[in-house]
Design goal:
17 helices, 82% helix, 0% strand, globular
């Protein structure tokens, strides 16, 4: 009976059918959602730049970075939840899947309302001062940041929904919810940023309100869908409201290393920007880096992130189903898919770099020269980034979330920043030195991720939750 219920709730082709088909079916909705989310951010920045000016763009950019760093602790629950959901979905244990997601939702609500909201409101001025935002930027950023930190429940519900359904094998429902969220956000921001009729222009505050309102609406829809009984993960009114500390400890045990990994990579990126800012052609190098790495290279990273999530799901399901060899093969299949996309995009970086840079209005011989140079380096980085992220997904899906953290610290912090510091002290930094440091970091991350995964120690990671008591 339990197997028949699981076969109706969870996609069993993940543990029985074609691996390539399973990986791609889980990956493409995530890729498309990244593209749609990027469109929303682009519209926001265009409107704020038009109605507020560059200080508004800077305020939103600074606030969003702070919000991401602060939210990473709560987001760790999502990573831990994904490990548990994939493993128990593969085992066909529907009851434990529901309990895990339910406890993750309850914990995230408590943290958002009881921790993030009050601390965020009080600490926002200090956080903005810590990142050296100018007084003009702080004036625009303070209400934005306070609204985002104080009303983050809806956004967390949306994140949690995706983090619950994808490892359960449903990648399309999060995509549909993401489309609704993006459309609502754009409509509300058009109204609130610039003002319509009796609604006055609110600038950056309007952008925050639009995001909060849209995410709150979608968050409420998420809760309703979970109680509807139509999804692989389901809530009922008979579930226990009290905390289940065994599950909560497991959520943080598997999730916190992923959170620390995100913090380490963000810190590494900020420090790398410090070295780019120290170059003699700092403005041109920063522009080339912003467009080349921040806007064009994402076509590789978006694909890779989708494959990483898909790999984690397929590996977790097959381990839960007692099929470790199939879990191993899933990562190899996903890596081959990612390599194809990375090589295709990378070839465009080499063949038509001037065309790609021209799409973003880049002008001036110096900045274009640096942009072309960086794209050639990123064409080399692309395949390594894809492989690294795919095998990172394989490790995380198995429950080994610590190894990717250590690998990221070594490859994304110590190696590139150490190389920049050494070359800067010996001969003075040039842009090509920083581009080389980026590539070496990506190569190191790829090699270490592959070696660690192929060691196979993740096969023996136990993911156990006691049966529910009545």
């Amino acid at each position: 009976m339990a197997d028949s219920v699981a076969s109706r709730r969870f996609d069993r082709t993940i543990v029985e059918g074609s691996l390539a088909h399973a990986v791609w079916r889980l990956a493409w909705p995530s890729m498309l959602q990244h593209v749609i989310g990027g469109l929303q951010g682009l519209v926001d920045h265009v409107m704020i730049g038009h109605f507020v000016g560059y200080t508004g763009n800077a305020a939103v950019g600074v606030s969003w970075q702070i919000w991401l760093v602060v939210i990473v602790f709560v987001s760790s629950l999502i990573s831990g939840m994904a490990v548990l959901v994939a493993r128990f979905a593969g085992a066909g244990d529907t009851a434990t899947v529901d309990r895990v997601v339910y406890q993750a939702f309850l914990t995230s609500v408590v943290l958002a309302v009881g921790v993030l909201a009050p601390i965020g409101y009080v600490a926002s001025p200090w956080l903005l001062a810590f990142v050296n935002a100018t007084p003009e930027v702080q004036r625009e950023a303070l209400p934005y940041l306070r609204i985002m930190l104080g009303s983050s429940v809806g956004m967390l519900m949306f994140f949690m929904m995706g983090g619950a359904l994808r490892p359960a094998g449903d990648a399309r429902t999060p995509l549909r919810l993401g489309v609704v969220l993006t459309v609502l956000n754009i409509v509300l921001n058009v109204i609130l940023i610039g003002g319509v009729g009796p609604i006055p222009p609110m600038g950056t505050t309007g952008a925050a309100l639009g995001t909060v309102l849209a995410s709150s609406i979608v968050g409420a829809v998420c809760i309703g869908l979970l109680f509807s009984g139509r999804l692989p993960v389901r809530f009922t009114w008979q579930m226990r409201w009290r905390p289940d500390w065994e599950i909560i400890r497991a959520l943080f045990r598997f999730g916190l290393p992923t959170g620390f990994q995100g913090i380490a990579m963000n810190v590494g990126g900020v420090l790398l920007l410090h070295y780019i800012g120290s170059l003699s052609q700092s403005a041109e190098a920063q522009a080339a880096y912003t467009i080349g790495y921040g806007q064009l290279f994402v076509f590789i990273t978006w694909t890779s992130m989708g494959l990483m999530t898909a790999t984690a799901t397929v590996v977790g399901h097959n381990l839960g189903a007692g099929r470790p060899e199939r879990a191993m093969a899933a990562a190899h299949v996903a890596a081959r898919l990612g390599l194809g996309v990375a090589l295709l995009v990378g070839s465009a970086f080499v063949a038509v770099p001037h065309v790609l840079l021209g799409l973003f209005g880049m002008q001036g011989a110096a900045v274009i020269s640096l942009g072309v140079q960086l794209l050639r380096f990123l064409a080399i980085s692309g395949p390594f980034v894809t492989v690294a992220l795919v095998y990172t997904g394989g490790l995380q899906g198995s429950g080994d979330t610590r190894s990717p953290f250590y690998i990221s610290v070594v490859s994304q912090v110590f190696i590139p920043l150490g190389l920049c510091a050494t070359l800067g002290a010996v001969k003075g930094l040039e842009p090509v030195d920083i581009w080389t440091a980026i590539v070496l970091g990506h190569i190191t991350r790829s090699l270490l991720s592959v070696v660690r995964f192929r060691q196979g120690k993740w096969r023996h990671i136990a993911v156990d939750i006691s049966p529910a008591t009545s």
